[in-house]
Structures
1.
Amino acid sequence: MTSLINGEVGSALASADRATQYGDAVFETIAVEHGQPLLWQRHCQRLQQGLLRLKLPAADETVLRSEAEELSSGVRQGVLKLLLTAGVGGRGYRRPDVPDCQRILSLHPYPDYPARFWTDGVVVRRCQMRLARQPALAGLKHGNRLEQVLARAEWTDAEISEGLMCDTEGMLIEGTMSNVFAVRDGILSTPALDQSGVAGIMRECVLDLAAELELPVRIVTAPLDVWLQADELFLTNSVIGLWPVRQVGVTPFRPGPVARQLQKCLSERRLAPSPAPPGTRSTTA
Amino acid sequence: MTSLINGEVGSALASADRATQYGDAVFETIAVEHGQPLLWQRHCQRLQQGLLRLKLPAADETVLRSEAEELSSGVRQGVLKLLLTAGVGGRGYRRPDVPDCQRILSLHPYPDYPARFWTDGVVVRRCQMRLARQPALAGLKHGNRLEQVLARAEWTDAEISEGLMCDTEGMLIEGTMSNVFAVRDGILSTPALDQSGVAGIMRECVLDLAAELELPVRIVTAPLDVWLQADELFLTNSVIGLWPVRQVGVTPFRPGPVARQLQKCLSERRLAPSPAPPGTRSTTA
């Protein structure tokens, strides 16, 4: 892992940083392919919206872009993380009047996912851990992620790729690291994120593609069991693009035509990384 | 500020620490008086409970105690913070099988609160920010504190010492940094913390003292307006001990006999720091 802290190569941050003390931060996780951070503009916009909603100063996009390109240069496939922290200072929960925000960009190897996750689909479980309803933070990719950490700690079985999370009222919201879509009778649905969850960039892309392809779309609040009646189920995030689901617990699914069509669009337009055949992955271009 | 990171004097932590990335940490804030961390045993117990509920390994209390004493030695009045992080590692939300937890102890000056906060009481406001209902995290002093940070960012008026927070259903839970008690018709009440809020060590002490003093106690879930009908209202935390409330918005209160009696007990038993007369505070013994 290589990281830039405020533009300098480094890996240490003040232990008094408010991100460390309170999770007072926002972040983005971005796929890098052939030296380019994918969907840069959308990630940047969401980062700025997150900073605004958390009442933190806007980030300098020119600087972010230049540092992102520096880290991504020559990388065939990787993952770039941007973390903007509220910085050191303020007694207790009170921030200083002018926060000294810290900018951390780090480049990570692309995860070693088998190509069959894209072709045959993934096995998914239901998480016990519930998501709280908090409209003030819903949709944001903020630094308070204990719910996801505890949900992800529920299983170690390497055959299970993701866990589905419901909110405290039992409504399906998302996966621990992905958004969820279902197709039933030709209608594409995804959970409403006004109370909980992260409004993923790949989710946004898929919704835009669906509009373009004239697929009817519904934003839905419904219990998990209703979602399991779908013809197709799939997961999205910026690193994986789109994974069909082939099993939730004991309920089987098949990758369907909508997932295939969307995968094709994402790949053709280079909005998501192309799955590499097993053994061919390398971090250099 | 002096800090020990895993026993060594230092102030830097890996930027990849899970506390910084996800708020994956627990902490304690402890008053120090005459070289002694107050209520050490209770703080240690809560820390261990927090680690257990977050599925992190237990901390070595002998090491913690020795480092806490090293930092507190010779300090007349101060604040000691213990932060236990989940450490570096794990791809995404998944922790490594054996987390490399980091131990950060830091000593801070005692805040410069005027003595009248203890004698005459403090002015308090209602926060707009609500607390989510999340039983899996309720009661814990964990590292996901954006709700408190955003609540504390609602005001800058130095005359206002604390903000009261309701949950998303409108029930009073706590202050941004304190627990709340009310007295009405001789009965002591404090909000239930099974859905949200931090189960404060000073709250626990006050409940124990109340049992000893044979004060009837109720744990209550009720909207803020019900609490404002109290005869007495007061706030507690480990650093302040007990502050009577003299005003919530436009509603006036008076420090009452129960607050006075509890303050006296806390002070006599050296469970809370004694308020120093203005101008006399010093950080050395």
2.
Amino acid sequence: MPSPSNALPAVLDRIDAELDNSVRRLFDFLKIQSVSTDPAYAPHCKAAAEFVAKDLASLGFDASLRPTGGHPAVVGKANGGAGNAPRVLFYGHYDVQPVDPLSLWQTPPFAPRIATTPDGRKIIVARGACDDKGQVMTFVEALRAFKAVTGSLPLPITMLIEGEEECGSAHLFDFVKRNAAELKQDFALVCDTSMWDAKTPAITTSLRGLVYEEVRVTCADRDLHSGLFGGAAQNPLRVLSQILGTMHDKHGRVTIPGFYDGVKELPRDIKAELKKLRLTPKEFLGGVGLKIPAGEKNRMLIEQIATRPTAEINGMIGGYTGEGAKTVLPAQATAKVSFRLVGDQNPKKIQDGFRKFVRARLPKDAKVEFSNFGLAPAIQLAFDNPALLKARTALKAEWGKTAVTVGEGGSIPIVGDFKRILGMDTIMVGFALDDDRVHSPNEKYDLTSFHKGTRSWARILAALAE
Amino acid sequence: MPSPSNALPAVLDRIDAELDNSVRRLFDFLKIQSVSTDPAYAPHCKAAAEFVAKDLASLGFDASLRPTGGHPAVVGKANGGAGNAPRVLFYGHYDVQPVDPLSLWQTPPFAPRIATTPDGRKIIVARGACDDKGQVMTFVEALRAFKAVTGSLPLPITMLIEGEEECGSAHLFDFVKRNAAELKQDFALVCDTSMWDAKTPAITTSLRGLVYEEVRVTCADRDLHSGLFGGAAQNPLRVLSQILGTMHDKHGRVTIPGFYDGVKELPRDIKAELKKLRLTPKEFLGGVGLKIPAGEKNRMLIEQIATRPTAEINGMIGGYTGEGAKTVLPAQATAKVSFRLVGDQNPKKIQDGFRKFVRARLPKDAKVEFSNFGLAPAIQLAFDNPALLKARTALKAEWGKTAVTVGEGGSIPIVGDFKRILGMDTIMVGFALDDDRVHSPNEKYDLTSFHKGTRSWARILAALAE
């Protein structure tokens, strides 16, 4: 039996030759109306789970539907590769977003088709074409090609394909906790993210964490007349502005002591690569009427949005906010303040640091109360993670361009759970494009994303198996 | 004919001897239900005006009811004193506040009576007993005593007793403007203010002015998701907090360049007197749950509230202000900011200074719009105004304590009009006490306020006639 690396050229040839069949299999998957958020589609969700389990079984997986309290999860286990090959968990989801408004679809959402864009690209159009059925199948088709060429999988693989991602993965946390021993592998792979652009692959290496605080400052025990009390009575809006106004210094840096503890500098080569992307303010901010990045001045825009922590005032209210004038001196003012975390920033320490920062600046006669609405750490893959380095090399071989390592501002909660519950890192590689209309009518996935995505996984799996 | 000063002892004796008759005359005035805000009482207002005109005529005034577009004003003119005596305008009002809720009055509001307080003070109880019928009559009774003793008034006096003060003096501005030549005298006297306390007389020498601005900061052209744009897109709440948070320095001083232009230091003796009052934070702020004066740190509390300009944020709103968390990065934030002015501060310059202060601190990508809801200068009597000095000496002679010169946070608009339209200063002396329940049920005026108030005016008039 050839090693995965030795088999790779034949595996890639097989993927190319099988493309039409791969697309046909994806179409069968896309025809299943697995809208997880609407109970009316529960049978369709079950059908999609059964489709996945059957397909995995055909590749030698011990696969079954597992109850979660909601739509079932599919778990499949298979051996493969040499004895020292790493064991991986692949996570994806078979459920899709609702299709409303249906009238905006050019063709029915569950009647997948190949179309050609005005600029000549072949695309697969259907609900779930990209998110996440198309992306999941890039991985499955790569496994299928290995199996066909070598007779086995390149690695020991556990598949976890859930059915509630589009409605919040409500039961997945408990499922992962209950089945920790079974699901914990050396690391996880996820295919639910984007390319940098149509020609540049990307690996998502960080998801920012979140601390969300409400701060309420109270001074007098009632609203006062500013003509009588102005100048003498403490004003909570002044207090709050003064405190929150100093949360950033003139260089855009957050001034809360200890805020940057656990934030690592990017390795020089990663930074150089990010720089090469030349993300311009016009590209990123132009669409919303802005021009100038507002973050830390000595950081590139792409660092500001992806790899650096932030502090933002999300809301603020106090005093008279109606039409015209009222000379009130308010008793109370409230702000909502959130922090996006990166690296090893400790959410509890950030929360404590913020509260201490406010209290230390609070004048006498002002009282403060805090409420918390969120406390989650960031997910940050070490830049020298061996699996990450192998995946980057593999992606470069396929696309001819170095894979960008990016951070996402939003959050894929399960990746945090993998880290916290299972102590397992996740490598997120995906082939979605910005124009895929994910969650919108006429969702599509480029045929190139599907085809080269499958080839990319074949290369990554071969590299990981070394 | 003795000079007013020489006649003063006899005039004071006369006032003492006439007290019962003076009270009887005040009672006749108080019985008239001159509620100006309710059209049903228009005949009563006219009756009150006629009462005043008739009384003034009995003292030798050429007095008449003058149409204003609303309730009539009473204007009376009389000569008096030596050729070099200053000509004065006395302003007061014959109208009173409504009496609701009637059920809270212990006796009918227009059935004046003498009562005794638990601590033994004699008081006159009725609507208008203090505001302003009782106060107006202290001046009129002083004139009556002069007339009785010397056969004439101590000075040339013009009386202006209006009937719409309690409903906003809507027609008075135009009336003063139309009759400027007739009403402009050397200075004005008003009896519509308070004592410092029951034993300490006071002269109101300043009324603070007002500049009221709304400032609206806009960054992106729509609300953004802070997970995606946080750190890179400018946040208008951050911008507004940073700007308004620096409007005061750590000493409580307003940092807007030129803000204190036109603010004069108090003369040392005035300051010393204010200090002697020992107004404590507990007295002034304790009632609303505060302890520490929030104004300029090197200023006494009484300066902060009465003689120094202020900048206050009266309201602020932006972003998400509902329950819980929303990670929005708002497009817009708005604040209402007002300034109380003193001395010669120029409202237009303050407005310009504030707008320039905001614009100079506005980061690129932030736009600002301003709206104005108020622009009025302060009224400030020079501390070396000769009439003021004479009034202070006279008050000290009557009360045995130096008269405090105070500033009022609120505003008596007509005093500003006298200054702006007629170029005429006003000396405000009044004998109201904090517990007079002005505008409330069971309004009262201490018999001492009425009696010694009348004696005070006799002394002031004698001094002014010198």
